[in-house]
Amino acid sequence: MARRCKEDAAATREGILDAAERVFAGIGVAGATLHDIAIAAGVTRGAIYWHFQDKAAVFDAFMCERASLPLDVGKYPSEPVSAADPLDALHAHVLAALRRSAGDERLQRIFRIAMLNATILDHGDAAQRRWQEIRRGWMSYAERRLTLAREAGLLGPAAAPHAIALAIWIMIDGLVRTWLLMDRRFDLVAQGESTLATYMAGLRAAR
C-alpha cells in the first residue's frame, strides 16, 4: 500500500509538471497561475501545494528536471574527444544540435519556455543553476575541442578557446531565439550551417 501511494504521488507530481509545461508554453511563466496549472493537470491547488511551495518552485522543478537549451551537451553527449579534426567535430556537433532543435516539437516548446517565456534571473536559484550548468557543459566541451585544434595547428597560436566557445554559444542561442520569435519562418538548419561555416572558415583562415 505504501509503495502504491508513493507511486501515485510521483505520478501526480509528473502530471503537474506536464501541465505546467503546457501552461508556461501557452501563456508564459509570468502570466501563469497555480490555478491555471491545477486546471490543466486536473488536480486541486492543494495537490500542487503538497508537492510545490509556489509557482516559482514549480518553475524551478521544470528547469532542473526538464529544461534544455540548444547546446546542451549533458543531455546530448558528443563523440569522443579524440576526433581527427577537432574543428570538424565541433562543427558537426553544433549542426546536430540545430537539426535536433528543428525536428522536435516538444523540444521547441521547452526552448520557448526556457529562452523566451521566462526571465531566469527573476526566478529561483535552482533555475539559474540549471542554465549555468548547461552553459558550463558546452564551454568545457567546446574549449577542449578548440584547444586540441590549436595544438594541431588548425587555429593560430593566439586563438582563445574560451572566447571562441562563448562566441559560438551566443551565435547559436541568438539564432534559435530569433527562429522561435519569427515563428520558425526560416530554415534553422540551413541558416545555422551557413553562419557556422562562415565563422569556422574565418577561424581556419586566421592561422
Key features of this structure:
207 residues, mainly alpha, Arc Repressor Mutant, subunit A, Tetracycline Repressor, domain 2, 9 helices
Determine the CATH topology of the largest domain.
Tetracycline Repressor, domain 2
Largest sheet: none
Task: Tell how many strands the DSSP assignment holds.
Answer: 0
- Intertermini distance: 68 Å
Short description:
This protein has helices spanning 2-27, 34-41, 45-51, 55-65, 86-103, 105-116, 125-151, 161-181, 188-205. With 207 residues, it is mainly alpha-helical.
Give the SSE layout.
Layout: H1 2-27, H2 34-41, H3 45-51, H4 55-65, H5 86-103, H6 105-116, H7 125-151, H8 161-181, H9 188-205
Helix pairs in contact: 1-2, 1-4, 1-6, 4-7, 5-7, 5-9, 7-8, 8-9
Protein name: TetR family transcriptional regulator
DNA-binding region: 33-52
Transmembrane segments: 154-172
